[in-house]
Amino acid sequence: QAQAMEWLAYQDTLYLDSSHLLQRYALVAFYFANGGNLWAILRNLSSGWVPNGIGVHECEWIFVDCDPEQEQVVSLRLSGGGIMLTGELATEIGHLSRLNYLSLANSRLEGTIPFQLYQLTDLGK
């Protein structure tokens, strides 16, 4: 959480309103909590997540899909393709209130499913 706040406060250059700031925070906290620094695929991409996401709207990040009108995250496809999730699933994912698709297959996540995930009423897959 602290790493996410520091990245948003001191490294990121994208100005966001409060609703998008919470969404961006949730994704960045997820990145730091679940082994994002080990995601090999991000090393070769020009935009996406923390290494290459400074100043890039999170809806343009790889593996993130958003509702085009409201620019809210509706899908995270985080399985395979150089992604290896580790640790306990970050509770901040619960801030993605419009999330309807979440793919975490082939990961090394541990622990229980966070209560916050149960609050995502649009989550179908």
Question: What would you note in describing this structure?
Answer:
The protein has 125 residues and is α/β, with parallel strands linked by helices. The protein contains four helices and five strands; from the N terminus they run αααβββββα. The strands form two sheets. A three-stranded mixed sheet has the order 1-2-4, with no helix packed on it. The chain has a two-stranded parallel sheet with strand order 3-5. The radius of gyration is 13 Å and the shape is globular. The two termini are 26 Å apart. The mean pLDDT is 83.
Brief descriptors of the model:
two-stranded parallel ribbon, globular, three-stranded mixed sheet, 5 strands, alpha/beta, 125 residues
Q: How is the secondary structure organized here?
A:
Elements: H1 2-11, H2 18-33, H3 49-52, E1 64-66, E2 73-77, E3 86-88, E4 101-103, E5 108-110, H4 115-118
Parallel strand pairs: 2-4, 3-5
Antiparallel strand pairs: 1-2
Helix pairs in contact: 1-2
